[in-house]
Write a structure and sequence with these properties.
The chain is α/β, with parallel strands linked by helices and 258 residues long. Helices cover 55% and strands 10% of the residues. It has 12 helices and 5 strands. Helix 4 runs parallel beside helix 10 and helix 7 crosses helix 8. It is globular, with a radius of gyration of 18 Å.
């Protein structure tokens, strides 16, 4: 944040989760940008559009600044809103202040149970990280990553049936776009290859077009294949080199046009 403050005219922020971390080859990224350019990469594990919105809102907008260029790397349903679960409330507690909690509760229309969880996670380190301890134990399960991912996909499908009735499907996406437009920052969404596990929804593409948002789809690029994946989901080193080269070739033209 301080670096962006000091270099307001030439800065770039990559937002995402572990897919973003795996997809970006740092050497290629560093070589592409001039040494005078500020480049930040924020990728909390298991995060999605809701947390990315609050990172921009609470960490940047509250200081009356926003990165000039924001690149969001996503896959699957990462841009869809859903009711916060315990892990997402914990992540929120990590980035918010006590004073932010009232705004979050009102903005999310949190029920009493989740409001209480958010407050407890904020004031109690032990409560906040109890779930992470349990995840460490899961590491010892055979093929735990694949098992947890399948369980997560199943749970999300079930949860979304009820959660999206109560919340607009793209509530946080729209909020983020509105926030970015307030500062006239450049916003780019990039889909990443992670196997044949998802499609870009037609209503999402239409939303990008309606709001004049830049979007580049690398998910279906034929240059990628299963050999580019580390664990069937995240890109491996060679996959990251492919993705980064393709992205930077596009981004070079994108910056020039801006």
């Amino acid at each position: 944040i301080d670096m962006i403050k000091n270099n307001a005219s030439d800065n770039h922020l990559f937002l995402g989760n572990s897919l973003t971390r795996a997809a970006l080859n740092r050497n290629l990224i560093n070589d592409f940008f001039d040494s005078s350019t500020t480049v930040g990469i924020i990728h909390p594990d298991d995060s999605d559009i809701a947390l990315w919105y609050y990172i921009l809102k609470l960490k940047f907008d509250d200081l009356n600044l926003l990165p000039e260029n924001i690149i969001i790397i996503f896959a699957n349903t990462h841009l869809q809103s859903k009711i916060f679960n315990s892990e997402e409330l914990r992540q929120l507690a990590e980035i918010c202040t006590i004073r932010d909690i009232k705004f979050i509760i009102k903005n999310e229309n949190l029920n009493f149970s989740n409001s209480t969880k958010l407050l407890i996670y904020k004031v109690s380190y032990i409560a906040r990280y109890a779930q992470r301890v349990s995840k460490r134990i899961l590491v010892y399960l055979p093929h735990y990553k694949k098992t947890i991912r399948r369980l997560s996909d199943f749970s999300n499908e079930k949860n979304n049936l009820s959660s999206n009735i109560e919340m607009e499907k793209y509530y946080h996406l729209d909020s983020l776009i509105e926030l970015v437009s307030k500062y006239n920052s450049n916003l780019l969404f990039v889909s990443v290859f992670c196997g044949n596990r998802y499609k870009i929804k037609k209503d999402l593409k239409s939303r990008f077009e309606q709001k004049n948002i830049n979007f580049v789809d690398f998910k279906n690029n034929l240059k990628f294949n299963e050999n580019d994946l580390l664990d069937g989901y995240h890109l491996n080193e060679m996959g990251a080199i492919k993705f980064s080269n393709m992205f930077l070739k596009y981004y070079d033209k994108y910056i020039y046009e801006k």
